[in-house]
Specification:
A two-stranded parallel ribbon has the order 1-4. A hairpin with a 2-residue loop joins strand 2 and strand 3. The chain starts with a strand and ends in a 26-residue tail after the last helix. Helix 3 packs across helix 4. It is built from seven helices and four strands; from the N terminus they run E-H-H-H-H-E-E-E-H-H-H. By secondary structure, the protein is mostly helical. Helix content is 49%, strand content 12%.
């Protein structure tokens, strides 16, 4: 999968903008490309504002024009994400470090909030049907926490497995449903040379 490395302050500010992140999130979860009007209706902001944000995201290469279509004499533009890996420079210690950290905290928190909202919705629906049972991860998802003990080679293998699986399943289709994730894995040993 192609990588986009955000190397300047301007690129990072374009990408981490909350409205643009919401717009990207909607498009990433959509099975079909969307027009600025469709996004405007969904986000409850003006189509011209959506156009502005789309232009900024296009400049980074994280969105692309999928196709155009004549609708009532107007050329509608349909956009989709480019399904790339975006690196925001976590390894850097510069004037944007705190913005990167806030962005990541918000991204993980939004994923958690989405999980909890979906869990509540699914459980309420199942409660009405009296179908709550064990092993519901296939409907709800799950939050797994703990500690693994890995060799250096095993940690490389784990990252390769996860990255490959996520890349293979990053493109939407009509037969698949979007599953949002936030994975945090880190070397927790006191001695990083272990």
């Amino acid at each position: 999968m192609e990588k986009i490395i955000l190397s300047t302050k301007k690129e990072l500010e374009i990408y981490i903008n909350p409205v643009r992140q919401q717009l990207l999130g909607i498009l990433e979860k959509s099975k079909e490309p969307m027009t600025p009007k469709m996004l405007s209706d969904k986000m409850n902001i003006s189509a011209s504002s959506i156009q502005h944000h789309i232009g900024k995201l296009l400049s980074l290469g994280v969105l692309e024009l999928h196709h155009t279509k004549q609708i009532n004499g107007i050329t509608a533009k349909f956009y989709k994400p480019t399904y790339v890996v975006v690196q925001i420079g976590l390894e850097k210690d510069d004037s944007m470090t705190s913005q990167r950290e806030v962005y990541l905290q918000e991204k993980v928190a939004r994923t958690y909030d989405g999980f909890m909202a979906q869990k509540k919705k699914v459980l309420e629906g199942l409660k009405e049907k009296e179908q709550i049972n064990q092993g519901m991860e296939w409907q709800l998802g799950d939050i797994l926490t703990g500690v693994m003990h890995l060799t250096g080679e095993e940690s490389k293998e784990l990252f390769k497995l996860i990255s490959g699986y996520l890349e293979t399943h990053s493109t939407p289709s009509s037969e698949k449903s979007p599953w949002e994730y936030a994975l945090i894995l880190y070397h927790a040993g006191e001695d990083l040379n272990e």
